[in-house]
Structures are given as C-alpha cells and as structure tokens.
Design brief:
The protein is mainly β. The chain is built from 1 helix and 5 strands; from the N terminus they run βββαββ. The strands form 2 sheets. Strands 2-1-4 form a 3-stranded antiparallel sheet, with no helix packed on it. Strands 3-5 form a two-stranded antiparallel ribbon.
C-alpha cells in the first residue's frame, strides 16, 4: 500500500490543487477504494465557483468526491458486520 495518494483538494473558489495526501486507514465498517472514475454534481460546482452550496459553507480545504467507482484496496479487519 502506498504511503501517499493523489487527491484533488479545493482551497477556495476556483482554487483546486492536486496534492499527495497520506493514504487513509479504514475504520470499522469502512473500506479504502482505489478510484478509477468520478463525477460531479451541482453542489460540487457551487463549492468550486462560490465556496458554498445554498447556506452550507464547507471547512477548507475540502476534497470533493461524489459518484465514484473503483476497486476495493483494503477493508477494515472487522469488516462491515
């Protein structure tokens, strides 16, 4: 498992950056997914262009992720039960 992964991180309106971040370790009932494709939705576009969606303003930096698919790399030792 690599020590770092590449992530798209949004720091503010129209300020996305590709960064190497520590590979997350799955917690109970979680899995680590190697993303192959991802899509965006309206709220992502609002975060990108206006730093908010309706009245919600996320804490920065923010990693956008919606509707993605990929391969399971690692599952927590307790699984999903």
């Amino acid at each position: 498992m690599p020590e770092f992964i590449r992530a798209a991180v949004l720091y503010g309106a129209k300020d996305p950056r590709l960064e190497d971040v520590e590979t997350p370790v799955p917690k109970r009932r979680e899995a680590l997914i190697s993303v192959e494709a991802a899509g965006i939705r309206g709220s992502d576009l609002h975060y990108y262009s206006k730093e908010r969606a309706a009245t919600f303003k996320p804490v920065k930096p923010l990693m956008l992720w919606h509707k993605f698919s990929g391969f399971v790399e690692l599952v927590h030792s307790e699984g999903f039960s």
